[in-house]
Every structure is written in C-alpha cells, then in structure tokens.
Design goal:
Enterococcus faecalis V583 fold, 20% strand, v583 fold, homodimer, alpha+beta, 16 helices, four-stranded antiparallel sheet, five-stranded mixed sheet, 3 domains
C-alpha cells in the first residue's frame, strides 16, 4: 500500500507505524482553511488591476535611490517633533501604550526619559511614563525606523537619507553596538553615557566628515555589500567597511580634533553593525515610496514593538494589521536560554520588507554562525521567498543564486494563498528591562497580520471571478 | 542493453547513436596510464612515512602567521640584491632566459629596464636584455612573489611580511591596478609614471602610515575576507576594504601631506586588487614554511613565467618541475578574444598553493562574473579539490560549505593518482608585449609537472608495497 498524506499531521504516527509506504506533503489549504479569505486571495490573485497596482508599487520600491545627506538632531530634522515643550518618544513597531509594553521596550523608554533629563530616577521615569507624561509614537509615523526597541528621543542624532528624485526623507538613529545597549532595553549609566558620547562626539564628527565628503549614494554600496556576504540586517560587516572607506577622505579633511577622528574610526572598526541603521533608513525610504498605490497588496511595513507584530499594505496606507509578536529561534550568548528571550522586536524588518535581511539569507551564508541554520538552509530559505514576492530586485543581486535579484515586494495575496510568511532574522533581547541583547535568530512574520490585511482590502468592483484556485499552491 | 563506458571517449558517439542505454564515467587510469608512475604513486600513498612528512608540512603551512611589518625598497630589504652595480630583475615563475620569454614577460622586463634607467629606449633595453646585460632570477628564489610577469626591480618598493615565530620573511611588490600595467606587459610612459608615483609617493605614505600603526596581523583579516566573498587571488575587494579600515588610523596620524593621505585613500578605494600582493606575500610565507620536509609530497610552489608552469614539492626543495604553461579559459574585456591571450603567467598561484584562489572558489561566488563559471560550478570546483589535498585549513574557512576549511596542502601523490590537477584562477595578459590585461579566467596546473615531480621523489627504503591501487579513485 502507498499513501499520500496531504497536510494532516495527526495521521502521520499511524501511517508510520502501519508499515505502509507513505509520502507526507506539508500542505495546508489556502488561508489556513478560512474559505472566505482563501476565495478572496484567489480573486485578488486573478485580478489584473491588482497585478498592475503591485507592479507599480514594486517599481517605486526598487527605483528608490537612497542618498545619505547628513546627520542632525531629531528635534531639528524630523517633522512634527520640533516643539521643545513636547515630551515625545518614538518607538519601534505599531502603536503601543506603556501598560502593554514588553520588558525591553520599557527599559529603553525608561533610559530615554532619564537621558533626556525628564526624570531623575528610574522610579520617577516609570511614574512619568505610566502616568502618560510622555507621548509615545511609532517611528514609522514620522518617516523613521529604529532597530529593536527603536526608542528615539528629541535630543538624539539621526541619519538623514533622502531620494533626490522625490525629495522624500527617512531617518534612523545611530547604532550603539551589541550587548548592553538601549535598543535592547538596557539603561544603566554606561548605556546613557554612550548615548551622550554619540550625541556630543560622534554626531559632530560625522557631521563634519559628511559635510567635507558630500552626499553618499547608498544603493551601490549596499548592492556591493550583498556581494560580500552581508544581507544588510544582521550582517553589515562589508557595508560598514565600505562605508568607512567612503567616509575616510571626508573624515581626514574634517576640521575636528585628531582624537575625535581616531575615535570615529575606532567605532567603525569595532562595530560591524554600524551600517545597519543606514541600511534601515535606506529601506524605509524604499518602502515609503511604494506606499499608497491604490489596490496594491504589496507589504510596505513589517515592524514589531515586542508585544505586537504589525504589517501595512501599499493599498491601505497608514493602517496597521497586528498579531502577537512571535518568538525567535536562534543562538543565544553564553549564559542565556530561550526562556530568557523577549518576543520579536524592532523596525529592522523594514529590511525584509524590501527584500533584504531574512529574505536574502542566501547572500550571507556566514550569518548562520550568528542566527543559526546552515548554508544550505540559507540558500533554500531565500529560494522559498520568491513565491510570495512580486519580483526580483534589479540592483540587489545574490551571487550564490547566480546573481538572481533579491526576492522583493512581499505580496499579501501570495502569503495568504500559500500560508507562507516572510522570513525575518533579528536580534534577541532579554525579556526583562535593563539587560540587553542575549542572542540573534530567525523568525517569521505572523500569517494573521497578512490575513487581516487582505481581509481589509476592498476588491474593486468588476473583478474577475477565478476558478477554484487562482494560483497553483507551491513554489 | 545497458553499457557502462569507463573513460573511453571514442566509444561515446557510437554508443549514443546505437540507441542503447549507456552511462559514461569520466575516468582515466592513474598517472594517465603510466603504469610505473601509477605504481609509484600508489606505493607512496601507502607509505605512512610520507603521510607523516605531509602532515608535518601541512602543519607548518597552516600555522604560519603572516604579519605585515612594513615596506621597503627591493635593494634595501631583499637578501642578495643589495649590490647597486648589479643589474638584476626578478620575474614570475621558474627560471627563464630572455630568448624563451613570452610577450607579456618581455614587455614587463623592457619596462623595468627603462624605468631603472638602464636603457633610454625600448630598442636599447631589448638589446641589453637579449645580450645578457641584465641578470634574470625568479622571484621565488629570493623569498619573493610577483603577480603576472612579476617583474620586480631594485628600485621598486615591496611589502615585507614576516612570521614572528620563525623570523622568516616574504616580499611582494605593490599592485598597480588593472588594465595597462607593467605586470601584464605594458610599459609605456603612463605605466612607468605610475611606477614612479608608487615609489615616490605611495611608498613613503605607506611607510609612514604603517610606522604609525605598527605591525598588522594578516591572517585574521584574510580569514574574515574569505567570509566576505573574497578568495584572495582574483577577488580581494573585502580584504582591501578591511585593510583600508585597519590602515586608516595610522594614515591619519602619519606626518605626511594631506594630499598624499587622500591620494593613498583614493588608491585603496579604486583598486580592489590592492590587497592581492599582500595575500601573495602571506601565502609565500606559508608555502616556504612548509618547504624542505624530507619525504613530503606536498606542493610548496606553483608558478608560471608565461612559457612554463613550474611546481616544487616540499621534499625536493628548490627543484622546479616544469611543463608548457597552459591556456586560460575565461572572460575577455571588450574587444579581445581567446586568440589574443598569452599563456598562464604569474606567481599568484602561490595562493592556490596554500588553499586559496581557485582552490576556494566556493568562498567567492561573485567571482564568476570576473573569471567565468557559475555559483554552482564554484561550489563543485572547491568540493573536487579536497580529494587532492592533505587537509582543511584550520583558520581559512568557507561559509557556503558550512565553514569547512579551505582544501589545503596539494599532495602530488593524489594529483597523479586521480589525474586531478589543482584549479587556478588568474588574470589573462595579451600575448604581445606592451598591451596589458585583456581578461581573467580559470585554468588548471599541468599534470605533467606533478608527474615529473613525483617521479623524482625518492621512495625511502622499506616502503610497504600496496595492492593494485593504494587509493580508491574518485572523490
């Protein structure tokens, strides 16, 4: 007897013990069995108007040209945050109130309140936050992104990345390095002192070096880093080295003290994640460019606040579709265990949103030492992402796939139809406030977010009606 | 009917047209059918004393610790070349007289004679060289290596790489960039002016920067570059960027004019092959460390002068085994064709000699755009090299092979037994003097060199006698 078991896991033990030959196919019905949504996904997949909208969103996303213009303080450059009387903190992910915030997000908010001088002790800071004395806003709502907790306060410096074609801007704070840092929820004196050093020393040094150098095109640098083993989310060593090389002449000519020049070079040398925040700003620019195409089911934001995972679609601009933030499988630093881990956190999934990071693991086989897996699983992982994407990035190519473009433009129709969520790789924060990073790993966006988002899409009148399935399930 | 055809190519057309099912196995008898040599290879493969000698040579090769000490002029630092009255030029590959030199080697020798001021015109230079007025010596005989023509003259600056453990030193000239350059046989005014700039501007700038910086450990940098898509022969972009980052603090502190600092940074930025010559010096140090282990059949030099390909074995130190230099299959710059190409040239196969370059193509999938092939062929190519190597490099690992060590320590016994030559990737020079680089590609060391070398190995008395074959043929 030979049996083909299609997706019914509960039959497997019986089959295995029966002695019969069997093949198990890991299959679930579209939309995980929600027939109404499966039908809607199929209908949208068969609708050429959606195809055209997605092609346009994909085009906007992939022609985006990120240029590093300079650096400035949040309150001087991010629209809406100029009022010095306003106590506002930006944070990662979809909107969230203090009461529901996770440990690492709370830790980072506490640290920022202390660092801004809005409170003199952690208790005072907590009371202020719990009492609503500080406004909380997603970075995403201000054209910004922030890794992990993403907490960005008015006195912090940020990168300014702009597209000269559209004038659009995106912002991201500076990278603090790994370990006990604010973005992973740590907030002791060492952490706050580093923030002060970044604002008082690093910021003016970068400002002077960039002014001497002039604007820096980020896309060729990022394309090159993808050919050098980076995926530009959790691996940025090549991009950081290339950025150092690009910045060095400006740094040399900047009229700043030599010890400051050396300190900046040292920082660029010891922190291989330095470029992450530039990658994120460049990706935010591309994602924002793709937002707002009517009828498009392409994803233009994936972001996590440690409590919830949120997704936005191009055709439903500004609306978040959320689900509980997932857990992360990964490698832990010595002394930590999976039970110590916070849930998935950060705006850094903006890299996956435009085809990098976990979508392009195949470009970065060495990353498996940091996030787990094998070189083969990295290749296969990227291979599986093409089926849920609109296309292949024309500039960001992957040598190990013979220069195939990165899988770009996550299409909610396909995610739902195939039950295949985008792969995300990420850092892992301790679940308690104040500790910091304890590892890095791989996770997947919750299908629920994409299902909700697709459910909310209006089907334009006159859409053609597909047959029983608008698309063959499988890659 | 089903036929298994083992290695007899002439049968294949008949089989194919017969309609019979058949499988063709690409097999040749050991030592390409030379029964005496095949038996000797088998006997040496079964000899544990050779195994022990090879293990020792492998150990010495892989523990070698290359440290960049500094730079100096050839006549001041290379032993035996101090006499200012001596007119001597070093060149790539095994020994060679002018009369038998290939076009690009002649072009480079002419250029060096002109640049040293030993002649005032190309005709005068040619007469001097043809008349024996300039001594020619292989770089390898002076602890040096040079890419392509490898022509190194007394007034040129060189890198000095040393192993602090043994005091051993290795030397290599500076990289000129691609295209119309001396090492590819070009020698017009532009080429000679660049040589002067390198000696008068680049050399003192590097000297000052390295003095301010202090010695630089090359092995961690090279190991890292292998994780960033370099194979450290034809792809050195990551290593050059990492080297720039490592050098920048010293350059900043060097008391040299700012325009010189900027010129050096610019050179490091535009020439991604800059690190090649450092990689070569580091590899020469490792290969020399492995030379001279009695009874060892490991290869310690592969080098080409454009006419001949030469190989040395550890157990036969200083002896060259040569065969005609092979042709190179590759990609040509616009306007050039395979018939324009010179034969394989250069000491850069020292990188393959210690496990890098063509042996580690799997580390550098992006290189296929430069030398041809596909990402899959790069993976497979490296996979096939393990069978002819003593072991896997403990520090140089390949992410795409799940961090397997680079195939290192080419064993002449195995090369001959399996008829499997080491893969080499290389630049391609025009066959005529004076033109320069016209492409890059892949070739293989001639089996003949390894056969001759193995033939010359003395079998120690008392060696055990193997059965019909000491080793299963196949990987």
């Amino acid at each position: 007897m030979n049996v083909l078991n299609v997706g019914i896991a509960s039959f497997l033990p019986g089959l295995a013990s029966s002695g019969a030959g069997f093949t198990a196919l890991d299959w679930r019905p579209p939309a995980r069995g929600n027939a109404r949504l499966a039908f809607k996904a199929a209908r949208l997949l068969a609708d050429e108007r959606v195809d055209r909208a997605n092609a346009e969103a994909f085009r906007r996303m992939t022609v985006s040209r990120p240029v590093l213009l300079g650096v400035d303080l949040v309150r001087r450059c991010i629209p809406g945050l100029h009022d010095p009387q306003r106590r506002v903190l930006l944070h990662a992910g979809p909107p969230l109130a203090w009461a529901r915030a996770s440990g690492p997000l709370r830790g980072a908010l506490l640290g920022a309140v202390l660092w801004e001088g809005w409170a003199q002790s952690a208790d005072e800071a907590e009371a202020l936050l719990a009492g609503g004395g500080v406004e909380l806003e997603p970075c995403h709502h201000r054209g910004a992104v922030g890794p992990m907790a993403g907490v960005t306060s008015p006195s912090m410096p940020v990168w300014i990345v702009a597209d000269p074609g559209t004038g659009r801007r995106a912002f991201c704070n500076f990278n603090e390095g790994l370990g006990k840092v604010l973005r992973f929820g740590a907030h002791d004196a060492e952490v706050l002192e580093r923030l002060s050093w970044m604002a008082k020393v690093l910021f003016p040094a970068l400002e002077a070096a960039l002014a001497a150098r002039g604007p820096l095109e980020l896309r060729p640098l990022m394309a090159r880093a993808l050919h050098m083993g980076d995926e530009l989310h959790n691996r940025n060593g090549a991009a950081t080295a290339l950025f150092t090389r690009a910045l060095a002449p400006g740094l040399l000519q900047a009229r700043i003290p030599q010890e400051v020049q050396l300190a900046l070079l040292d920082r660029l040398s010891v922190n291989d994640h330095f470029f992450l925040n530039l990658s994120m700003a460049a990706c935010k620019l591309a994602a924002d460019a793709a937002a707002g195409v009517p009828g498009s089911t392409l994803c233009t934001a994936m972001a996590r606040n440690g409590t919830e995972f949120g997704v936005q679609l191009s055709g439903l601009p500004g609306r978040w579709f959320t689900a509980p933030a997932p857990e992360v499988e990964g490698l832990f630093f010595a002394g930590y265990r999976p039970t110590d881990a916070a849930r998935d956190l950060g705006d850094s999934a903006i890299t996956e949103t435009v085809g990098l990071g976990g979508m392009s693991l195949a470009a970065a086989p060495a990353i498996v030492r940091f996030v787990g897996g094998s070189a083969t699983s990295a290749l296969e992982g990227t291979g599986r992402m093409y089926a849920i994407c609109e296309g292949e990035h024309p500039e960001f190519t992957i040598p190990a796939l013979d220069f195939r473009g990165a899988p770009t433009g996550i299409d909610a129709r396909r995610v739902v139809d195939l039950n295949r969520p985008p792969t995300i790789n990420t850092g892992i924060a301790h679940r308690l406030a104040g500790i910091g990073q304890i590892g890095a790993g791989i996770t997947a966006a919750p299908l629920e977010c994409f299902e909700q988002a697709l459910d909310a899409m209006e089907v334009p009148p006159g859409a053609s009606t597909p047959g029983s399935s608008g698309r063959v399930t499988g890659s």
